[in-house]
Amino acid sequence: MKKASLSRLSSPFLSLEHGKSLKLPLFLAFQDPPERSREHSDPSSSSYEDGDPLSFQVWRTTGESCPENTIPIRRTTESDLLRANSVQKFGRKRGRTAFRAVRRDSTSSSHEHAVGYVSGQQYYGAKASLNVWAPQVNSQNEFSLSQMWVISGSFNNDLNTIEAGWQVSPELYGDNYPRFFTYWTTDAYQATGCYNLLCSGFVQTNNMVAIGAAISPTSSYNGGQFDISLLVWKVFISCVTIFLCSH
């Protein structure tokens, strides 16, 4: 797929382009989210050896980075679109499957999931630490993931979600590597929303994070354990509501 880009770089698991980033002075005025707890801020508790909180992204091991006012964008290929069967389906969750996943009950033997949740009157954000594995899926149409949701609305057409985590999805990425992802929807996965940067509606400003990039190292049975920490936080600036997602 041809996109306007400044330059291109390659890592062992990802072909990236430096795309122009929107200039958003508003982002400079953000109030800080709550401080991370001591166990998360103590370098000795981190599984990543070099102490770089972004070192889990394989592409950063090349030493390359994106210039100022640009962001790393995973290059969409013809093979990506062919696996999706149609342009309309590319980068989107399947409505019924996604709807079952976000529900706390399970009515289908074809979709196995476990959900932990809290509910209440008012929340301004959430954070989670997700253990990262590299499970092998049996077919291209299957996937495995670990993620966090921030949800509002009912489980009807007004469901709103902000999602982030890691996933193994041969259909979306063409391989079995665990990859960092984001997702959003405003109508229960019907007509809005997509993975990563594959549609409008989600604005990335950080040039150090490649959404869709492979994660390494991963956890192993009776071996090393590795996790990523995610934070979704809501802030108010001059009556404008903005969501931050970082890790």
UniProtKB/TrEMBL annotation:
Region (Disordered): 33-53
The name this protein goes by in its record: Neprosin PEP catalytic domain-containing protein
Residue ranges that the Swiss-Prot or TrEMBL entry lists as coiled coil: none
Organism: Amborella trichopoda
Signal peptide, first to last residue: none
Skewed-composition ranges (Basic and acidic residues): 33-42
UniProt xrefs under PROSITE patterns: NEPROSIN_PEP_CD
Ranges for domain Neprosin PEP catalytic: 105-247
